[in-house]
């Protein structure tokens, strides 16, 4: 009989339990209001492949954090069993371990008996149903098929989007923030054009537009091409399904932006945008276009007043604001960017409309800060200098063309994503044929 207690046998009364466990991963929980460390979390794994979360409070951090190295094996005794977190669980278990001043930790030789990894994997088809569910964080595995360029927000935050594929060629988009984005790019650089398989932990499901995606948290870690049975199985399943040997599966490709249906979005010229036609059965088209901002159109101002609930424009009537979408008087409203820019490439010129998030990303200053800094006697209808400073930037825009744009010859195409790019070449980089484009759309 083992001298150690298995994690599955722990109860609130197991304070005298003696554990032999591997430290799976370590991370710090951060208060996003002030960036202070709340506590340090560790995932502990035993030989039966059970796991539990351990919590190191800040007053014990100096004592234990330096000892509990990732992947190390330890004998741990004198612990407190406490209720586990009710939300944002990394381990879906009602109990957690608290380390306190009596806790003893002793490093032990790694005999290979305890598995190196333990994850709570979710299939891709569950992601949509997990949107808004914050009880447990999500772990997924997949082959990285593509990734976008590193993007920066106006607050300085960095992010990168990656698309994962499973054996059934289902896709999910994962957004990695800050150092997790840097770690991803470093891993891609190390692959040397080889296929990249990954397990990503500690994610939350979110929905933007109609698609659900996953986003990183403090608990997120990425494990690339590890020796992990489900990951090895996935390699062979994808290899068998595609008829391609594992070693010759495609490496990740880099794109301007990634979406779940990225292969349907083409990069085209301004001339082709102006001549595009929407095929029967579709409401809109999405394109990428690389262009230079050559001016700001000030006929419609640079912001609009909107409903705080749905962000749609409100109408003023007898001194009150009404939201047609919410069908009620708007008790609270705010201002959001709406900046119409004049853009050009080698094929022509047109106008794009930047709304709040994309405008703030390029301008680099939140809307409310600009309003606050405008002097009381200044004319708020004039385009502020901070906004005019984006003139001259070369960007890759993801835009949408809807039926109104075509039937009303309205050349204010809404921008849904934007990324600053390198300068445009002197010659026209776009060789797409409008006829070929429309033919492809008719047959798609």
From TrEMBL:
Pfam families in UniProt: DUF223 (PF02721), Rep_fac-A_C (PF08646)
Alphabetical list of InterPro entries matching this protein: Euk_RPA1_DBD_C (IPR047192), NA-bd_OB-fold (IPR012340), Rep_factor-A_C (IPR013955), RFA1B/D_OB_1st (IPR003871)
Residue ranges occupied by any Replication protein A 70 kDa DNA-binding subunit B/D first OB fold domain in the UniProt entry: 3-107
The UniProt record lists the keyword Nucleotide-binding: no
Segments forming domain Replication factor A C-terminal: 288-403
Keywords for the protein's UniProt record, in alphabetical order: DNA-binding, Metal-binding, Zinc, Zinc-finger
Leader sequence residues: none
UniProt entry tagged with the keyword Metal-binding: yes
Superkingdom in the source lineage: Eukaryota
Coiled-coil spans in chain: none
GO molecular function annotation: DNA binding; zinc ion binding
Region: Disordered, residue numbers: 422-444
Family: Belongs to the replication factor A protein 1 family.
Protein name in the entry: Replication protein A subunit
